[in-house]
Amino acid sequence: MSACTNSEFENLSKENGVEQIGSLINVSFDFTGDYVDITETPLTSRAFAENAKTFYAIQIDEITYVKVMKGEEKVVKHYAYGIFSDIKNARVSLPEGEYIFSALIIEEREDTIFSRDGHYTRPFCMGGLFDSDYLEKPIVSEEFIKTDEFGLDLIDSDFTQETINSGIKMARLDRYYGTTEVELDDEEQISIDMDRYAFAITYNVTPPIDGTIKIKAPDFGRTFYEVEKDDNQVSQQYIYNAPLKEKDETYDLNIVILWERGSDELEEYKVEKTIKIERNKNYIFNIDMNSRDSEQTFDLNVNATLTDESITID
Question: In the chain, what are the domains?
Answer without folding.
Answer: 6-196 (2.60.40), 198-306 (2.60.40)
